[in-house]
Design a protein that fits this description.
alpha/beta; 4-stranded parallel β-sheet
Length: 346
């Protein structure tokens, strides 16, 4: 007769630590300091990215290191000083993106498993440092949020590239999701329209028209298949419908061209000059492609383009702030994040 040995009392299984979900807001970037050295470090990282300047051959490297990085940092540092947050000793883009992260964290505080961090694609805090911080807090799932309403390879894609590079070095990788562009999202268009209406109501004058200025891009990039221009057009058309305006009252332009190649047109600065010479005296400008105010909005639009308009006969110019960390702006980010976190959080 076979005797069965008594089974040992089973030990209770160790309960795994509850998993956490990380949300990583990412914006373009900024120098750490408003001087030539800080701008040089930033520009070198930015302009060495093959997503930004696709031809990274010997000629470009000679131009970048021999000319651009020797001359441009000093001039751009003067521009940064015009808008610098002297209280915090940082650029407005860094101040605003940090606030967006803090406010989103507060909005999601009832989801205890969610942690929010922020990063810059170029500069600090780096994507690597912020991903490391999320992992250190126990996040085994990360939602990357490129803060660009319109997709382009030079913005959204390079954020993904860097996140992928960071994860490629890890043995234990967190699961990754990336939010899609939101150029036609109902909450985004409504927030833009609300910002326009609120701003115009505060002005002591009535603009004859509004210019929607988006960051430019070499035309060759679009010819190769980048969807950026189409998405800028879609945003503008959706905003026109919401505001009840046509193409004569809400114009689409592109700013910030660089180098000698043809960029997307019409150019913002040339449009300012043309409008003033044609007799337009009062305008407002909105920058729907920027989620936070930065050098391109606060200095290039609100100062440089205002001067161009007024120098050529314009009289009253107003730059409409970006959505930033305003309540409508934060509602856009919250809506986008909660939509993409479905299935990860209750």
């Amino acid at each position: 007769m076979t005797t069965l040995a008594p089974l040992k009392t089973a030990m209770p299984a160790t309960q795994p630590a509850p998993s956490r979900v990380g949300v990583l807001l990412v914006n373009l970037g900024t120098p750490d300091t408003a001087d030539a050295r800080g701008v040089r470090v930033y520009l070198k990282e930015f302009l060495s990215d093959a997503r930004v300047i696709e031809d990274q051959g010997l000629i470009w490297k000679l131009v970048l290191n021999g000319i651009i990085l020797r001359t441009r940092p000093r001039a751009k540092a003067r521009d940064y000083l015009k808008i610098w947050n002297t209280e915090k000793n940082e650029s407005p883009l860094k101040t605003i993106t940090r606030s967006q992260s803090d406010k989103l964290g507060a909005m999601l505080s009832d989801r205890e498993q969610v942690t929010v961090e922020w990063a810059m694609r170029y500069g600090n805090p780096s994507i690597k440092s912020s991903v490391d911080a999320l992992i250190a807090k126990g996040c085994d799932r990360i939602l990357a949020v490129p803060l660009y309403p319109q997709y382009s390879a030079a913005t959204s894609a390079t954020v993904c590239d860097e996140v992928f590079r960071v994860l490629a070095r890890l043995r234990a990788q967190p699961t990754l999701r990336v939010t899609p562009p939101y150029y036609e999202d109902e909450a985004y268009i409504e927030a833009l329209a609300t910002s326009v209406e609120t701003h115009l109501a505060s002005l002591p004058f009535k603009p004859e028209l509004i210019v929607a200025s988006f960051h430019g891009m070499p035309k060759a990039y679009v010819d190769k298949g980048d969807p950026y221009q189409d998405q800028c057009v879609a945003t503008t058309e959706a905003l026109r419908r919401r505001l009840g305006m046509d193409e004569t009252k809400l114009l689409l332009t592109f700013q910030s061209r660089f180098g000698f190649d043809e960029w997307l047109q019409p150019y913002t600065d040339k449009t300012m000059e043309r409008l003033a010479k044609e007799g337009v005296r009062r305008i407002a400008v909105i920058t729907p492609g920027f989620s936070a105010d930065c050098l391109e909005t606060l200095e290039e639009i609100a100062q440089e383009n205002a001067e161009i308009f007024e120098h050529n006969g314009g009289e009253q110019f107003s730059a409409i702030p970006c959505l930033n960390d305003s309540n409508p702006g934060m509602d856009v980010i919250r809506t986008l994040v909660l939509r993409e976190l479905q299935g990860w959080i209750e």
